[in-house]
TrEMBL record:
UniProt gene name: cysC
Biased composition regions of type Basic and acidic residues, renumbered to the chain: 248-257
Residue numbers spanned by region Disordered: 248-272
Designated name of the protein: Adenylyl-sulfate kinase
HAMAP family xref list: Adenylyl_sulf_kinase
Organism: Saccharopolyspora erythraea (strain ATCC 11635 / DSM 40517 / JCM 4748 / NBRC 13426 / NCIMB 8594 / NRRL 2338)
Protein's UniProt keywords contain ATP-binding: yes
CDD domains xrefs: APSK
Domain of life of the organism encoding this protein: Bacteria
Biological function: Catalyzes the synthesis of activated sulfate.
């Protein structure tokens, strides 16, 4: 372990890495990357990329790096904080480096305080402590990314019996609902051999499937696994990697080694597409596929389409009809859908969440991104967010789409009412003021509106009555399966 004892730094600059960066920091601090002292220097990165080895010849699959703003990389020491602003770690930035794209910190990482507020802290002792607490003998490690179905559980039991091993499960804390995967893993405990250990790890993908799996082998070894169960062929792993044995479902719906079940007596399982379709449609998973507690958690992790959160984002000029359509859509949904709806209207938000922001390009961008942040939270928790800001810039709309898309569904509706008509309506007299020069930076008159090229639906309210506009939005929501069809 290369992480030294507590440090409290008060006078060094602070950086909040993104969630992916923070998960690497946590794994470094937890001793899950045992070959590393901290973030890699340029020569180490090059060596790992080219040969899968650190410069001293130690095998290591993935460059663990931290991008920061240019000026930060010039400091000798940087404190890393989590999203709540709590100190997590200190980087002694001994070998910062720059490539064409970004600046990077490089150097040893140590904890900022003994009491780090880590996700699921009580379930996650550091790797050496987990290793020391495992029973003696072989340990079969596994870093699942989805709940354990009955076939996989049968494979684990079979391998454990063969190797005389205990089980170490390292469910990955990634994706929009990581805690649901942890619950699903615990839900399978009754079907796992006695003495099974579960330690959630924030092990994320670094963008290369093969190297990611090799990294999982290193992490599993750091936590004390002597073998790794993996579907993939993993070369140069620090511990033997075992393929899951082929299993077949017999006439009594038990999963047994395929060799023991004559071909004529095998029943077929669910393929990936069938599984996704069942989950999306909210159909029960069969008992032979997953036990009831596991199936329940599985459907929480992957709720049916009509129970997942979604965001409808109206964009368009002032007076285009965004607020009117947003309100009508909310009222329609109230009659046919059980999800809670949060309306984030431009005018209303500017009096609350975004009070104090003006209409400069920067302030509009902040305004729209804040709305997107809230919409993503609503969506993550299975609600419906309806947003109705002007949102004149494509980059901000793309940011919202990406943010929401990570946790649920997103629909962009361009309320493309021509400027002429918006100006004719001029409900608030703002166009008249803008034309007279009394109101500067007015969208469509003296400030830009970038027409979306990625709208899921385009509505011109000068041609279509409100009722038809809303009907089109609802029809699309139904077509996509996010709202149930009329029964
Ligand atoms: N300069 C200028 N440009 C555009 N709009 C202005 C401006 N000043 C005030 N208003 C009023 O603010 C409402 C738009 O706020 P938004 O938050 O939707 O705008 S933005 O997305 O941040 O561009 C907008 O409301 P809507 O008419 O509902 O769109 C206007 O009433
Ligand atoms: N088909 C339509 N859809 C939406 N609004 C319409 C439509 N036809 C007329 N309007 C009128 O246009 C105005 C739009 O105002 P509003 O909804 O506040 O627009 P925005 O929020 O885009 O500024 C309202 O007075 C509304 O009654």
């Amino acid at each position: 372990m290369h992480v030294s004892a507590n440090a409290t730094e008060s006078d060094c600059p602070v950086w909040v890495p993104d969630p992916a960066g923070l998960s690497d920091v946590e794994l470094l601090l937890d001793g899950a990357f045992p070959c590393l002292h901290g973030f890699l220097a340029a020569d180490e990165v090059e060596s790992v990329r080219n040969s899968g080895e650190l410069p001293d010849g130690t095998r290591w699959p993935v460059p663990i790096v931290l991008e920061v703003p240019d000026d930060l990389a010039r400091h000798e020491r940087v404190e890393l904080r989590d999203e709540e602003g709590a100190p997590v770690a200190v980087v002694d930035n001994v070998s910062p480096w720059w490539d064409g794209r970004a600046a990077h910190l490089a150097g040893p990482v140590r904890p900022a305080s003994a009491e780090r507020g880590r996700t699921l802290r009580t379930l996650r002792p550091p790797a050496p402590a987990v290793r020391a607490g495992l029973p003696p003998g072989p340990v079969l490690g596994l870093a699942p990314q989805r709940p354990l179905d009955r076939r996989r559980l049968a494979q684990i039991r079979h391998l454990c019996a063969e190797l005389g091993a205990t089980v170490l499960l390292l469910p990955r804390l990634t994706g929009p609902r990581p805690q649901a995967l942890v619950r699903a893993t615990f839900a399978a405990m009754a079907e796992l051999p006695g003495g099974t250990t579960v330690v959630p790890v924030p092990l994320r993908s670094h963008g290369d499937g093969k190297r990611d799996e090799l990294l999982a082998a290193h992490v599993a070894a750091a936590y004390g696994a002597t073998h790794l169960l993996s579907e993939q062929v993993v070369e140069h792993a620090p511990i033997p990697v075992v393929e899951p044995p082929e299993m077949a479902r017999d006439q009594a719906d038990r999963w047994r080694p395929a060799a023991d079940v004559p071909a004529a007596q095998r029943r077929r399982g669910l393929d990936e597409d069938e599984l996704s379709e069942r989950l999306a449609a909210g159909k029960e998973l069969p008992g032979w596929f997953a036990s009831e507690p596991v199936a329940r958690e599985w459907s929480r992790l992957s709720p049916p389409l009509h129970r997942r959160g979604f965001t409808v984002f109206f964009t368009g000029l002032s007076g285009a009809g965004k607020s009117t359509l947003a309100r009508e859509l909310r009222d329609e949904l109230a009659q046919c859908d059980a999800r809670e709806v949060t309306l984030l209207d431009g005018d209303v938000v500017r009096r609350s969440l975004c009070a104090g922001l003006g209409f400069s390009a920067e302030d509009r961008s902040r305004n729209v991104r804040r709305i997107g942040w809230v919409a993503a939270e609503v969506t993550r928790h299975g609600g419906v967010a309806i947003c109705a800001p002007i949102a004149p810039y494509g980059a901000d709309r793309a940011d919202v789409r990406a943010r929401v898309g990570e946790v649920g569904e997103f629909l962009l509706v361009h309320v493309a009412t021509p400027l002429r008509e918006c100006e004719r309506r001029d409900r608030k007299g703002l166009y008249a003021r803008a034309r007279s020069g009394d109101l500067p930076q007015f969208t469509g008159v003296s400030a830009p509106y970038e027409s979306p090229e990625d709208a899921d639906l385009v509505l011109d309210t000068s041609r279509l009555p409100v009722r038809d506009c809303v009907a089109q939005v609802l029809a699309l929501l139904r077509e996509r399966g996010w709202v149930r069809p009329w029964t």
